Structure formats: C-alpha cells, structure tokens
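Dear colleague,

Thank you for sharing your sequence with our group. We've completed the structure prediction you requested, and as agreed, I am returning the results in plain text so they can be pasted directly into your records. Please verify that the sequence below matches your submission; if there's any discrepancy, let me know and we will rerun it promptly.
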Amino acid sequence: MVTIAAKDPRDAAFFAYWTTVIDMTDPAAPHWMDHHVRRVEECRALVDKIARFRPLAGLRALDVGCQTGAMAIALGERGADVTGVDIAEFLLEAARRRTAGWKIGAEFLVARGEALPFDDATFDVVTFTDVIEHCDDADACLREVARVLRPGGIAFVLGPNRFAPEWFLRDPHYQLAGASVLPRGLGRRYVEWRRGRPGYDVGVFPIGTHVARVLARAHMALLDSPVHAADRWFRSHTPPALHALAPIARAWGHVRLAAVPLFEIVARKRGSSADRTMSESA
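Please find the predicted structure tokens below.
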C-alpha cells in the first residue's frame, strides 16, 4: 500500500480524498501520486507561458480535462475566473477539494472535450494540457477549444508526441516500452497483459504538427511552439548576417514539433484584421 503526505498543507484534504478513490495497490500508484504532488508547481510554469501573451487577471479561463484542479489553482492565482471540465465526477470532487484548500474559487462541470457545454466565444483563455491523448476524438476537442474562445483569446495546448524516441523506451503513463505507438485496442491488450491487471485510459498519441494544423484550420494563429523557439534561438545565437538562414532553423523546429516528448503550443483566436494577416509558423 502506498501512502502519501501532502507536500503543501493546502493539499491535505485533497490527498485524503484522492487516496480513497484510486487504487493505491496499483504498482503505478507511486508514479501517479508523485505527479499530483508536483502538479501545481508545474502548472504555474505553464501559466507563466500564457501570461507572456496576455495578462490573466479578470479573464474567463476554461481548463479542458481539469483532472484534480492544479491548473485551476495556477490560473486562479493569476486572477482568472476559472471553469474546469472533465468526464468523471470523482475527478471534479477532487478538484473542488484541492482548489478549496488553496482558497481558489472555481466552477467544475462534467463534460467531454468533444462537446463543450458553452456558447461560442465564451472564454478568454482555454488550457488543454496532458489530456489530448485520452480523448476519443482529439481533433474535435481542438475545434471545440477554438470555438469557445473569444476573438483574441489564447489557447495553450500541451501533449505527448506519438513518435518521440523517449516514449518508445518507456511510455509516460505506464512506463512500458512501445505502448505509446499502438492503436487504442491493441495498446489496451498489451498494457493489461504486461501489468497483469485491467485498466487503460489512453488513446492514440497525437503528433504536434498535426495539432498545429488543426488549430490553424480552426482560425487560430500560432504564437509560440517549438518552431518559434528554434527561430528565436537561431536569431539570438547567430550574427545578423546569417539571419537569412533562419528557415533552416524553422525546419528543425518543425521536426521538434513532431518529435519532442511533450509539445507546447500557444495560439490566439483570430478576429481582427491584424490577426488575419499574421503568418502561421506551423
């Protein structure tokens, strides 16, 4: 049996609940619990990246696939009015307890990412992190993220690349070689066979370049991605005389967008004439 002591006392009520609703005898339980211990700090770093493009105070924010509320805490600390959705009530109850411990006001609803229960142009910020590989239809989720954003709104999407070399050796959910590249049905049989127990909630891993294309088709202008990062690095580490070679760096960035273990994309919902003339980098 795995036990856990909350690293932060504000998490005490959350962990007391969480250890009663998940299988603490599962061999993967220490990995899951470590994830939750670190998650608020990790989400703060992600929210910092969003805030580079738009201050969050007073904005309406939606976290799609909110899990146990860590992203809601990070967004709420920045002054956003947060709503979180996920597919199971036990996850939302964990999120309510965790945000209450941190004194963050947030609303949590049961919903699927493929059919968000909100009107068009409802939110200023939408986060979609560490959940895309669990969705039945990732493309539909991305289109829904774009639909509920207001013009000028910011989306932050993070997920694992299907063919990242790191995942061939050990997938991020069960630490099994090769699991991440298998179709859902075969992946389930393989993981349950290797673990000797039922339970598998991972679908097909996406590819970052495809995610970028779906967002672009949904009227989203990419603001930051591995492509942008490669271009920034090249321009800051080479003399101006070589900047004409920046397309080579961007080409390498496209490779990274498709192959880094975790891709990160920041995109803005188009809506103004300036947005419509922005060039897309991916």
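Summary note from our side: The longest strand covers residues 149-160.

Kind regards,
the structure core
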